[in-house]
Amino acid sequence: MSVKDIYETMDYGPAPESSDLAEAWLDERDRRLGHFIDGDWHDPATGNWFETRSPARDAVLAEVADGEAKDVAAAVAAAKAAQPAWAALDGFERARYLYAIARRVQKHARLLSVLEALDNGKPIRETRDIDIPLVARHFYHHAGWAQLMDTELPGYEPLGVVGQIIPWNFPLLMAAWKVAPALAMGNTVVLKPAEYTPVTAAVLAEICRDAGLPPGVFNVVLGDHKAGQALVEHPDVAKIAFTGSTEVGRLLRRATAGTGKKLTLELGGKSPFIVYEDADLDSVVEGLVDAIWFNQGQVCCAGSRLLVQESVAEPLLEKVRARMAKLVVGDSLDKSIDIGAVVDPVQHERITELVALGREEGAEVWQPDTPMPTNGCFYPPTLLTGVEPAATLAQEEIFGPVLVSMTFRTPAESVQLANNSRYGLAASVWTENVNLALDIAPKIKAGTVWVNCTNMFDAASGFGGYRESGFGREGGKEGLYEYVKPAWEARLSGKPAYRGKTPAEPDKGQDAVPGGIDRTPKHYIGGRQQRPDGGYSIAVADVDGQVVAEVPRGNRKDIRNAVEAAFKSPGWSTTTAHNRAQVLYYIAENLQARRDEFTGLLARLTGGGRKRALREFDLCIRRIFHYAAMADKYDGRVHATPHRNVTLAMREPLGVLGVVAPEEAGFIGFISTVMPALSMGNRVVAVPSLRYAPLATAFYQVLDTSDLPGGALNIVTGEQDELARELAKHYGVEGLWYWGDAETGKFVEEAAAESMKRTWVNHGRFHDWFDADQGQDEAFLRHAVEVKNVWIPYGE
Amino acid sequence: MTNVYSFRAPDAAPDHGLERNPGMGFDPACFDRLRINRSAVERRCASIPARRSIKKDHQAAWLLKAIACIDLTTLAGDDTPGKVRRLCHKAMRPVRADILEGLGVADLGLTVAAVCVYHNYIETAVDALKGSGIPVAAVSTGFPAGQIPLELKLAQVVASVAAGAKEIDIVISRAKVLTGDWRGLFEEMRAYREACGDAHVKAILATGELATLTNVARASWVCMQAGADFIKTSTGKESVNATLPYSLVMARAIRDYHRLTGYKVGYKPAGGISTAKDALAYLTLMREELGRDWLEPHLFRFGASSLLGDIERQLEHHLTGAYSAAHRHPTS
Question: What predicted TM-score, i.e. pTM, was given to this entire model?
Fold first, then answer.
């Protein structure tokens, strides 16, 4: 076409980014990528290789080592050997390495961008302007955390060897999100990239080697799920960090249950994109482009569910369609495209099937008349309207450039629809009304809420899910805790630290209240005393075998009732922290007034004498005061993300939190576990130690006089492990703390895989509840909250 | 709900093609609930040049188109007839003949879109441009601040048209925007439009003095409702002149006005656009937000004085592969 012709058509024309240097890089390595273990390249133990392809060009890029257990074992061994020396470096030394990696990522930014676009199929514009700059940013940011670990995280230690399994949608970026904090905190890493997209991980390995990173600190094992599984099962791996599907996340939760391995899961989503009638609709349209037509919609936090207020639905959709018609689909190295190739024909097929299902279920499918490349794996931008909440496509993650749309009438309804999902990764809220935005953001169950923006990421801000979108945070200070453990954890004992005598068998012949009036302890549910559903009681005796009380024998229906009561009492979670503090102080005040009663009970139940009982009781009062004080102190942060915005890291209660108190630990165990949970605004279903249950049932009378709203703390007595299992299986329980035996702890973690509830279990080890660290550490608060990051750009 | 989005879809609106925008009467329901989100607008503006890359022959063609859309401008206190004549000659022959030859576009008859001067030089310019078909545009209504009585503004418009100006670039009263006197702004604009008669009227919003993007959007609407042929960002004399965010907001207002009425209003960014790269970004914005039609001089203009020089250098570079120098191109 001549200049003169173009002058008439005013077309953009092709603008290809050259792949010459990227191809040369592959050629220099004979187009074979081995494992990177202990600072050097290794062929696969099996001798098997597989191909990685460029989906936009349908061409083979390289042969890749097919890793399995042997390769993983070698990598873990190298990482284990390297870890003590790496952790022993001072922060500055580790910072220097991370800084060098960041600099080298920048120096080789174009090579990385081109290879990433080739391997994944995503547009070069995205890898060049988003993925790779964020990779560098993550290493810079975490170089800083490495430097500051001693002063900013005193009392924390690295975990050891960390296994990291990452997806194909942001190959290098996900590697950076995981590798940078892990190394910063003194861990060593075995990374398993996705089988579709292994290339840039190999470049990163070279960068690390060239930056002088000691051998074994960072290792890459390539391959498919076989390598991943071997990594998860390896006994020397202290932690698994995974990003990928909820389905695989569940497998990992089960596989690591009871092992004591730490786990973070960043899983799927069906994130709502909520548009209110006063929003800047043209900006909303561009927001949608960034939400669902970014990276072909293959984004875990893609705004894939458009919720639009009825009054503006029609004009908005008209604008959306007009915009979609301008999206350009093409080769990933063309600088003038908006949408590249989906990663693999398998994915293409899945998208096609789901869209067909949507049509069958009554949705109207609209696609623009966009020219599509004839070669390669491409899917056009797609809009489905008339998708009602009951439709499969309103619930299931599509992971493609497919937007589903539905309407709402009121802000309250928008929240209801937004939260009508098993997922909770992110949300985008569009309104020019700051009152509305800040009202809605806390109400949405999602780890990230973007106000008038979408898909904003930064190393200084934590990212992660609620609900079945997984748990743990990546980025920000909150993300560092995923790669450290409190030093006191190592001091936890295999034997109880609490000195209470084992109660004797109850002497049935005795009268529990000699000469007195019989008392009937009950469950405490919804602020009322409730008889046990089963109608059975259990006698609890003191160390002399004298019956102290007959407490209710709770069953699954009592648990159900307690969870229901907690669920229906959201007030405790939404009231001000000051109010919660006041209530906790009041509890302490009223408990103090009954000092004689409680110390008497304690002395009888522990057999430890009155002096010891007084000491425990007084510590309980102090601990309640501590958590009353923390209620409005353990607050959020404003992250310094590099944009003109505020990023509010808000600490939110988990919601309904089960607490199975330590069996061995008298009253202090109950108070030490229940109070932090309450302090942060959780509605608690507590299962007290059976042998100390009379203390808990006496305690509800204190609650009754302390202005605690009904449903905020529910107490169900009975066989703890049986009740723990019921809590673990309950879908409405959002978190569960369990202090008991290893076997039930394992069950709790396994069962939690179903709903992805957050769990905190002791793996059969015992806290010293009198110890300030083990009994009252910040960890108790951290496990009681989720961090939600709310991004609010500003500027009129 | 009464805002612009609740009006009927465009299939209901007839397509008026090249017909002048007659205006539609004052209707604040079209704009009084509009809110523009600055951060989102800026993000879109950052992505426009990043999403579309124009290279090689395509770039050359686009730059030629940019030239065809230039209102070649001199608006200085030291303008003289001699300076204006020089400008007019450059307007008629904006690019060296050998370069046009080399690009294969010698027979396009490429000129700039118009020459833009103060009232005092209209006759000089009309005379110098005789036979070229290039219209003369005059700035008017107490340009640049507009702080003179309305009668004088109208008298100036009438005088400029009488002197031969085919296009009148008026300045709006910023005070009417800043005080929310939208009806007053409408009536003022309507009066200018009537005073212009057959001459086309471009409404300069002086966006840098309107405080918010929301005001820019609302002022755009009012001027279009009153019958502006073009809406234009700036006089070139404000401390902030044309920017991509202003352009995006105004382009979107034009799009919605077209959707509602079927009339196409032109757009003219002015002030501070001095590089070929800038020009490509603006053209891309027009193409992405408004479409192909807005890449022609009847719907798009650059108000610029030094832009042409940079484009000439880029065109020569395209031909020779060597970076060019300013002295190789005839000055205005």
Answer: 0.96
- Tokens representing B87 are 């400008």
Is the confidence metric ipTM above 0.90 for this complex?
A: yes
CB atoms within 10 A of CB B174: 22
Model confidence over A568-625: pLDDT tens digits?
A: 999 999 999 999 999 999 999 999 999 999 999 999 999 999 999 999 999 999 999 9
The whole-number average pLDDT for the span B239-257 is 98
User: How does residue A38 score in pLDDT terms, banded at 50, 70 and 90?
Assistant: very high
Distance of CA B33 to the CA centre of its chain: 26
* Set of chain A residues whose Cβ sits within 8 Å of the Cβ of B38: 795-796
DSSP H helices in A108-131:
109-120, 124-126
Amino acid identity of residue A298, one-letter, is Q
> What are φ and ψ of residue A427, in 5° steps?
-150, 155
Domain housing B207: 16-328
* B10 falls within a domain: no
pLDDT (tens digit per residue) in B129-180: 999 999 999 999 999 999 999 999 999 999 999 999 999 999 999 999 999 9
Output phi, psi for A571, to 5 deg: -55, -40
**Could you tell me the domains of chain A?**
20-243 (3.40.605.10), 271-464 (3.40.309.10), 523-786 (3.40.605.10)
Give the whole-angstrom CA distance, residue A75 versus residue A216: 7
A435 vs B: CB within 8 A: no
| Burial classification of residue A82, based on how many CB atoms lie within 10 Å of its CB (0-12 exposed, 13-18 middle, 19 or more buried) | buried
Residue located via tokens 């063309």: A334
pLDDT number for residue A513: 59
> Could you report the per-residue pLDDT of B14-59, keeping only the tens digit for each?
677 789 999 999 999 999 999 999 999 999 999 999 999 999 999 9
CA-CA distance, A513 to A505, in Å (whole number)?
17
Which residues on adjacent β-strands are paired with residue A383? A366, A403
Q: What is the mean pLDDT of chain A?
A: 96
Number of domains in chain B: 1
User: Please, are residues A441 and A429 in contact by the beta-carbon 8 Å criterion?
Assistant: yes
pLDDT band at A511 (very low <50, low <70, confident <90, very high): low
CATH code for the domain in which residue B190 is found: 3.20.20.70
Q: B71, B166, B169, B278: which one is catalytic?
A: B169
Q: What distances in angstroms separate CA A145 from CA A139, A173, A250, one per listed residue?
A: 10, 18, 31
Query: If DSSP codes are grouped into helix, strand and coil, which group holds residue B203?
Result: strand
Distance CA A249, CA B233 (A): 54
Taking an 8 Å cut-off on Cβ atoms, the answer to whether B292 and A10 are in contact is yes
Query: Which positions in chain A touch B58 (Cβ < 8 Å)?
Result: 6, 11-13
- d(CA B320, CA B102) in angstroms, rounded, equals 9
Q: Where are the strands (E) in A606-677, listed by range?
A: 637-639, 645-653, 656-660
Cβ proximity of A588 and A624 under 8 Å: yes
Calculate mean pLDDT across residues A546-569. 97
Contacts with A306 (C-beta within 8 Å, 6 or more apart), sequence order: A273, A275, A288, A403, A404, A405, A406
pLDDT in tens, A355-398: 999 999 999 999 999 999 999 999 999 999 999 999 999 999 99
Amino acid at A203: V
Closest by Cα among B204, B203, B247 to B226: B203
Three-state DSSP class for residue B156: helix
Query: Is residue B169 annotated as part of the catalytic site, yes or no?
Result: yes
Contact: A315, B104; criterion CB under 8 Å: no
Per-residue tokens: A360? 């069958």
The answer as to whether B56 is a domain residue is yes
Q: Mean pLDDT score of chain B, rounded to an integer?
A: 95
Residue A551: strand pairing partners: A538
Tell me, rounded to whole angstroms, the distance of Cα B105 from its chain centroid: 25
Contact indicator for B44, A283 with CB cutoff of 8 Å:
yes
CB contact under 8 A, B54 and A15: yes
Contact B238, B209 (CB under 8 A): yes
